[in-house]
Write a structure and sequence with these properties.
homodimer, six-stranded mixed β-sheet, globular
């Protein structure tokens, strides 16, 4: 390790899909950046490990040690109390999707504990929570970064922030923000004009390939996209009240919204295939395609999320696989937007966004 | 201005197209970020203004004051001597394209003077200079950022650095890196299959629209693209020796390389139109298009720059206007690259990259 290596103390909450890859990246980080990561707290849903004297937990074996020697996790308030007296800089990495933990962010920040996270909840719940978080960070000179809350490791949030901070004016943001819905429409309404299968079959295929949540309705309701549009709008300076304060088109037929298993839902979805088929026909017959798009006009605050008929030259038309795409229109960029495209999900790239955020804090720490 | 505003001292060298916009952004920066910019040195080719006591120069009127009260610019060594005793943090913004100033970067950095610049020369000359610069910055804890040296304000270099620092492995970089050559081929070999005019007419049109250098041969020789490929390769960890150490296809017929004016060149270029026409025909007859592409395979260090026949689904095929595009293939991103597309030239977005770099240094300064 470099003699210039900086010390940083870290608490990791959440050791699932993203958390475990993040821990793996932490374990190897000293090979590519001169930093000494001291892991002093690690927790999953029902286990947590830490030492009262802030003794370092060996990172490569941390999960194993937690599972073997860990205790019931303390409350988040107790975690704040433990971390506030830790050596500095101290960072809490939230790799959960917990609203309860998100609600505690202001407490962490007020106590000088910085945060890195892919958890969308804190930034897409009420505008009041967003404001509390940003004000707590500013007043107490702690940092909060959440690059991976939209588009995984792609440089989207950092780019929007750079634009705002350097005085550009963002006018419009538009894109495909869900890997699942990207895959579904790229398959179902292909740019090469081939028809693809029935809508319900396409959803079933996506589920089988692991592209959907265990219950595909959690993708099809559009809430995930609405959350991302909310986050981007706020970063761009537009105070969207909540992901439920603008029109979001759900792809779940009203009759199938609840009270059945995911399997039963998939079976019954076939009864509604003709709806989507009609929309696809309308698009293809004029040489266009269907895409599930989120957008916001920053000046007016008008946001919307839903299926659109787009031209084949539209940036979203030509997507592959489950790629995300975002177009950012600004005053400085003029008529043609800055467009970023790539994998917006997956453990490796999501964890990379969190690790990158961590290094940003390390670099800025005194 | 916020009471938390940080002080930063800055020397601006170069007040041309990019420099003047940069100064304008500096003058307004306090409105969007809590920073107090102290301009203590400003210079153009034949004038420079500074005060021995590091007194602040009013930014909005700086160019005017320099033109009125400025003296003959001192040598770059004298500038280093002046700046090394300035209050910290001190940043030199090089908005020139001077190789002489680029050669002095190690001197600036060794004296604790950080650098922000869109000037490609320092990073695309000999590998030895690159190494001297990076080593000087590391040893003396000064910063050097050059986002705008490739793709103007687009987040390309910062993204590559984040990938490297967090432990991703970049495998391949490919793209269209010249706004001029993007425009020429988007016009000449359009994705909609229309033939476009003759090659020489397209070049003439680009010149008339202001898309080329005063002498279009400075774009057509490919050196600008070769420099950018060199920079990106090095940032990605591949020690390319120089922009002349790999194959670069010049679009200037051998017979027209020198000894004539730009106008005469344009007249005579028509005699060679059949060459490019044949290549276009070869591409279009199989449903493909011509694009001028730079690429590097990071593992083998194999770089090349030149005209390629690409499929219409290739990211570069669908470009508009004079947009740049870059695709970054990495281990974590897998088969589909991270792709960034947008304006890669222009005063506003180029200066924004430099201003963004400045803020990165402000944030990291103690």
């Amino acid at each position: 390790m470099s003699p210039h290596a900086r010390d940083v103390y870290i608490a990791v909450i959440g050791t699932g899909g993203i958390g475990s890859v993040f821990i793996d990246q932490l374990a190897n980080l000293h090979k590519t950046y001169p930093v000494h990561i001291h892991l002093i707290y690690i927790a999953m849903v029902d286990k947590a490990l830490h030492y009262a004297d802030y003794r370092e937990i060996d990172i490569p074996t941390a999960v194993e040690a937690m599972e073997k020697h860990g205790a019931q996790p303390p409350s988040f308030s107790t975690v704040v109390n433990f971390l506030k007296d830790a050596p500095r800089p101290i960072i809490m990495a939230d790799n959960t999707s917990s609203q309860g933990l998100a609600d505690m962010y202001p407490e962490f920040l007020r106590n000088g504990i910085s945060i890195v996270t892919p958890n969308k909840k804190a930034f897409s719940a009420s505008y009041k929570l967003w404001k509390n978080i940003m004000e707590a960070a500013e007043a107490h000179e702690s940092f909060i970064y959440h690059e991976s809350s939209v588009g995984a490791g792609m440089p989207i949030i950092s780019t929007l922030k750079d634009m705002v901070e350097t005085g550009d004016q963002i006018t419009r943001i538009e894109g495909v923000f869900s890997g699942t819905l990207s895959f579904l429409f790229n398959q179902y309404s292909s740019i090469d004009g081939s028809q693809g299968g029935e809508w319900s079959e396409t959803v079933r295929l996506a589920k089988e390939l692991g592209y959907t949540e265990p219950d595909p309705r959690d993708d099809l309701n559009g809430l995930d996209v609405a959350r991302k549009v909310t986050i981007l709008s706020r970063v761009a300076g537009c105070p969207i009240e909540s992901p439920k304060s603008f029109p979001v088109e759900s792809l779940i037929p009203k009759e199938l919204e609840s009270m059945m298993s995911a399997d039963e839902f998939l079976d019954k979805l076939a009864d509604f295939d003709h709806h989507m088929k009609g929309r696809r026909h309308a698009a293809h017959s004029v040489g266009k395609v269907l895409r599930y798009i989120g957008s916001v006009d920053i000046a007016t605050g008008k946001a919307e999320v839903g299926v659109q008929i787009v031209d084949k030259s539209h940036p979203a038309a030509n997507l592959k696989g489950s790629d995300n795409i975002i177009s950012i229109y600004t005053k400085r960029y003029g008529a043609l937007p800055l467009t970023i495209r790539g994998a917006g999900a997956g453990g490796d790239v999501t964890a990379m966004g969190v690790t990158g955020d961590l290094l940003k804090i390390v670099k800025q720490s005194k």
